[in-house]
C-alpha cells in the first residue's frame, strides 16, 4: 500500500523535500467505464462503479488492488466526496494523523 503524508510548512513557509511527495496527485481509476450521455457529442468516458485512487507510477490502487487493464481518468482527481469512492482508498489517502484516529485502540 502506498503511503501519503500531509504538506506541513515550517514557520518560514517552506516545505521539506519528503513532504513535497504528498503533492503528487491521485487520479480516479476504475475497472469499468461508460459514455456520459449528458450534453452534446462527442460523449466522454466516465467511471462506472467504484472509483479507486491511483498514483502515477504505481501498479496498485491505494487500497492495494492491481490495476492491470483498468482505465485511468486523467481529467479526474480522486476525491472522497462521491458515494462511489472506494472506502479503502479514501482511508489510505488520509494524512497519517487522521488514519491514526481510525485505527482500533489496543490496550496492553
Q: Would you kindly provide a brief summary of this structure?
A:
The protein has 108 residues and is an alpha+beta fold. The protein has one domain. It is built from 3 helices and 5 strands.
The ordered string of helix (H) and strand (E) elements is: HEEEEEHH
Residue runs with pLDDT of under 50 for 5 or more positions: 1-21
User: What structural class do helix, strand and pairing data support?
Assistant: alpha+beta
- Beta strand %: 15-25%
Largest sheet: 3 strands, antiparallel
Based on Cα principal axes, name the global outline.
elongated
Q: What is the rounded Rg?
A: 17 Å
Multimerization state: single chain
User: How far apart are the first and last residues' alpha carbons, in Å?
Assistant: 27 Å
Helical proportion, percent range:
10-25%
Strand and helix layout:
Elements: H1 17-20, E1 27-30, E2 32-35, E3 45-48, E4 52-54, E5 71-77, H2 87-93, H3 96-102
Antiparallel strand pairs: 1-4, 1-5, 2-3
Amino acid at each position: 500500500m502506498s503511503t501519503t503524508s500531509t504538506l506541513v510548512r515550517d514557520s518560514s513557509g517552506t516545505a521539506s523535500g519528503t513532504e513535497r511527495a504528498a503533492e503528487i496527485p491521485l487520479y480516479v481509476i476504475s475497472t469499468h467505464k461508460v459514455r456520459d450521455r449528458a450534453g452534446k457529442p462527442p460523449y466522454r468516458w466516465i467511471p462506472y462503479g467504484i472509483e479507486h485512487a491511483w498514483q502515477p507510477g504505481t501498479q496498485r490502487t491505494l487500497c492495494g488492488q492491481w490495476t492491470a487493464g483498468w482505465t485511468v481518468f486523467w481529467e479526474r482527481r480522486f476525491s472522497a466526496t462521491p458515494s462511489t469512492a472506494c472506502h479503502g482508498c479514501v482511508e489510505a489517502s488520509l494524512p497519517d494523523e487522521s488514519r491514526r484516529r481510525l485505527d482500533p485502540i489496543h490496550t496492553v
